[in-house]
Amino acid sequence: MTAECPSVPEAHEETEPTPLRMRRAMGNFASGVTVVTGIGRDGGPVGFACQSFASVSLEPALVLFCADHRGRAWPRIRESGRFTVNILAAEQTDLCSRFGSGKGRKYEGLPWELSRWGTPSLHGVLTRVHADVYDVRGAGDHDVVVGRVLALETVTDRQPMLFFRGGFGVESPSAVTAPDPWGWGDHWG
Question: 148-181 in b/e burial notation, b at 16+ Cβ within 10 A?
Answer without folding.
Answer: bbbeeeebeeeebbbbbbbbbbeeeeebeeeeeb
